[in-house]
Automatic annotation (TrEMBL):
One Pfam assignment: DEAD
Name of the protein this chain belongs to: RNA helicase
EC nos: 3.6.4.13
InterPro entries: DEAD-box_helicase_OB_fold, DEAD/DEAH_box_helicase_dom, DNA/RNA_helicase_DEAH_CS, HA2_WH, Helicase-assoc_dom, Helicase_ATP-bd, Helicase_C-like, P-loop_NTPase
Length: 819
DNA sequence: GAGCACTGC
């Protein structure tokens, strides 16, 4: 085993997160061998550092070209911006800054400030020595990060401007260092929020920053300065100054506290991944900083830092700039706008003028990766991948694992089998090959295998979906094989149907995949397409907001007081048709009134971590005439996890499972079946794991179900839909109650209903689409009058999943009522 | 008698 390998292993076993998280890097850059990688979380940076030290000869000349802050206006660098344009300043020393650290430092900036230790060192009075020791050990690592020398420039920029767009390639250290740069700034009297697209990233970053600051984490101590907040896990305390949180969490907070008065700064990280949530957050923040929304009585204006790995700074800057007076056309005070507006608006305007935008670029660290294209395009990339795997295996010295990007479980399992077959015929003196599948549906313990060391003289071949593009970092990879395709979910407005299609990836995704080969050493990337093929790819992956059902996003906007959603500041504006479709759906759900404003019901729905349809079902179940809320919570909890029932492979096991689950199945359909399953699981007092094994139910899924259930019950109590006196029934529901439950489902899923045609097929009531009951349903093959279903998916054929029997006259009744 | 990329509240 090489030094690097053993370091990697040490890091893996020492780090608490065995899955290393990275940022998605979608970058517009077709240039020569560059890629991006970033170490995050405890263990990873250490590993990088160790590896770097021990392999300095092989490390490429540190690419530390760093562009400093660039002001939008060359003639007027941000640092020299006249103070008068800013909001009236509070005294330089913040109220709680009784500590000496605040005093002179902000005024006079010594030239070589970055060589000093962190200023918060004086604060560490009640901190145990081991934390301080760790902090001091980590300081040199921090100082070696490309972003470190930029600290003063960044601080100066944010002193003058309220918005900073920071593009940092991976490995620059931006996610960990930026909050530490800002924490002692005079304007930073409250907390700094840093958003992440994934939970694991939020948690591991928080751990890392706590270590670097010599602080406790979250709830460990009331003195903890660093914390995180993700669903089901809130680790923040009264002194938390740096808080990592998932995008969804920040969005929830934005609904509860629209002015964001608990924060001095919001850092939006990984913006290039462009989740729907990020798009909403950016829109809300833009409204907030430009004073279009209620201008709050803040001490200091909210600082917004947008961080991205992409090069398209331009669109981000333009996004924030558009609403602001441009620097060149700035009007002197007393201009017509100011005169005709109220005093408050004038204040807002002056704040807007001050909210100019700084930009900053920090280069990352990455080893070079050689790209090899196919000379001719191919249809059969499984075959091509197989050939290249064995070529590499014979030709390239060990160590060096191979990562193959494929589209899904089926192709992965197919290639896995082929590799194993061919590997059997290899010469005895050739090292062995170990094929390891990696996709999200794989059980956790099977996923863990990619982190385990390969046996002696064995090369790992990891066959992965795009889970390995951003969410999981596979150690030891020197070779990447990229099929150039991925499955993409697309929402079709006209049909209200989503489909999962195999499509070519974008250039930025291809670059991202390639970068996976250059994280630990120089690498190679084999693209199973031609160079022309690459050139015809889209530059960027289409943002999620342009290809998903918008009803939840729009309800969130309405709940935050955005009345005119058609004119919401979208980074990418969805087509009008998609917006209108979503508005109509919300109207059908009675989440909106006829005039388009949010209703009482809509407000309730928006507070639940559910789609509007499921939220509507929940609200319906709380009505006295329905009176089945606890049952419906159980069902919805089960619907919000992937698969409660294990997917069996062999015929034999399938039959075994059918038999074992028979006592759970209900003839009314999948919803009542799920209810019984949750009830039985919850009632199991001895060993739930054994119960799951016995019934071929996923224990992991059921644990999540129980978490969701608890959360929904709590939220229902907060919203007064449920009282403490309501008791959970442990008995399967009566006939009458079953009917009530299905009536509630129907209220939310009225557009997902179908009736049987004379030929035995099903057609939807709204849209007249043919659908078939999915084979995973307990109703598969049954012929009933009418059905209600949760999902309408197209995979070769239109399928209804999550299906229950309903009476046709109920359906027509509800349809009539809302149309 | 079919199949399901990936997040997240």
């Amino acid at each position: 085993m090489s030094k690097e390998e053993s370091n990697e292993l040490k890091a893996q076993s020492a780090g608490k997160e065995s899955v290393e998280l990275t940022k998605g890097k979608k970058r517009k850059r077709a240039g020569p061998q560059t890629g991006w990688s970033e170490k995050k979380g405890a263990g990873k940076l250490t590993k990088f550092d160790t590896a770097g030290k021990e392999t300095t000869s092989t490390t490429p000349k540190e690419k530390t070209r760093i562009d400093g802050i660039k002001s939008k206006s060359d003639a007027e660098p941000p640092i020299e911006r006249p103070e008068k344009l800013n909001k009236p300043k509070k005294p330089q020393v913040a109220p709680q800054a009784t500590n000496s650290k605040f005093k002179p430092a902000q005024q006079a900036r010594p030239k070589n400030k970055q060589t000093e230790g962190p200023r918060y060192s004086q604060q560490a009075q009640n901190v145990p020595p081991h934390l301080l020791k760790k902090r001091d050990e980590l300081l040199p690592v921090r100082k070696s990060l490309p972003i470190w020398p930029q600290a003063d420039v960044i601080k100066a920029a944010l002193k003058t401007n309220n918005i900073l767009v920071l593009t940092g390639e991976t490995g620059s250290g931006k996610s960990t260092q930026l909050p530490q740069f800002l924490i002692d700034e005079p304007w930073c009297t409250k907390c700094i929020a840093i958003t992440q697209p994934r939970k694991v990233a939020a948690i591991s970053l928080a751990r890392r920053v706590a270590d670097e600051m010599g602080s406790f984490m979250g709830s460990q101590s009331p003195a903890a300065k660093v914390g995180y907040s993700v669903r089901f896990d809130n680790a923040t305390g009264p002194s938390t100054k740096v808080k990592f949180l998932t995008e969804g969490m920040l969005l929830q907070e934005m609904l509860r506290n629209p002015a964001m008065s608990q924060y001095s700064a919001v850092v939006v990280d990984e913006v290039h991944e462009r989740s729907v949530n990020v798009d909403l957050i950016l829109g809300f923040l833009r409204n907030l900083v430009t004073g279009q929304e209620s201008a709050s009585a803040r001490q200091h204006p909210l600082k917004v830092i947008v961080m991205s790995a992409t090069a398209d700074v331009g669109s981000l800057v333009k996004f924030f700039e558009d609403s602001q007076p441009s620097p060149t056309t700035e009007k002197p005070p007393g201009n017509p706008i100011d005169e005709s507006t109220s005093l408050k608006q004038a204040e807002v305007a002056s704040q807007a003028v001050a909210s100019r935008i700084s930009t900053c670029f920090v280069e990352g660290r990455q080893y070079p990766v050689k790209t090899v294209y196919l000379p001719q395009p191919t249809q059969d990339w499984v075959e091509s991948a197989l050939k290249i795997i064995f070529q590499l295996h014979y030709k390239e010295p060990m160590p060096g694992d191979i990562l193959v990007f494929l589209t899904g479980q089926d192709t992965i399992e197919g290639l896995e089998k082929l590799i194993n077959d061919y590997a059997e015929g290899m010469d005895k003196d050739v090292p062995k090959l170990l094929a390891l599948p990696l996709f999200a549906a794989l059980p956790q313990h099977a996923q863990q295998r990619i982190f385990e060391p390969a046996p002696f003289r064995t090369r790992k071949v990891i066959l992965a979906t795009n889970i390995a593009e951003t969410s999981v970092t596979v150690p030891g990879v020197r070779f990447v094989i990229d099929c150039g395709k991925s499955k993409i979910k697309q929402f079709r407005n006209r049909l209200g149907l989503e489909s999962l299609l195999v499509k070519p990836i974008s250039k930025s995704a291809a670059i991202q995949r390639k970068g996976r080969a250059g994280r630990e050493a120089p690498g190679q990337c084999y693209r199973l397409y031609t160079e022309d093929g690459y050139n015809t790819m889209d530059e960027r992956t289409i943002p999620e907001i342009l290809r998903c059902d918008l009803s939840q996003a729009i309800l969130t906007m309405k709940a935050r007081g955005v009345d005119d959603v058609l004119n919401f500041p979208f980074l990418d504006r969805p087509p009008r048709e998609a917006l209108e479709k979503a508005l109509l759906q919300l109207l059908h759900l009675q989440a909106l009134t006829e005039t388009g404003s949010i209703s009482e019901t809509g407000l309730k729905i928006s507070k639940f971590p559910l789609t509007p349809t499921l939220g509507r079902v929940l609200v319906e179940a709380a009505k006295p005439e329905r009176d089945c809320l606890l049952d419906v919570i159980d069902i919805i909890s089960a619907l919000s996890v992937e698969n409660v029932f294990l997917n069996l492979v062999t015929e034999e096991r399938k039959e075994e499972a059918e038999e074992a689950r028979r006592e759970l199945y209900r003839r009314e359909g999948d919803h009542l079946t799920l209810l019984v399953t949750v009830q039985r699981y919850a009632a199991e007092q001895t060993d739930r794991k054994i119960w799951c094994d016995k019934h071929f139910v996923s224990h992991r899924a059921m644990q999540t179900v129980m978490n969701v259930r608890k959360q929904l019950q709590q939220q229902c109590m907060q919203q007064k839909l449920l009282s403490k006196d309501d008791t959970q029934s442990e008995l399967a529901p009566s006939e009458a109650r079953s009917q009530a439950i299905l009536a509630c489902m129907l209220r939310g899923f009225i557009s997902n209903t179908a009736r049987m045609m004379p030929d035995g097929s099903y057609k939807t009531l709204m849209g007249n689409q043919t659908v078939a009951i999915h084979p995973s349903s307990v109703l598969f093959g049954r012929k009933v009058e009418a059905i209600v279903f949760n999902e309408f998916v197209f995979t070769g054929k239109a399928w209804a999943r999550g299906v229950s029997v309903v009476q046709l006259d109920w359906v027509t009744e509800v349809v009539k009522a809302i149309m």
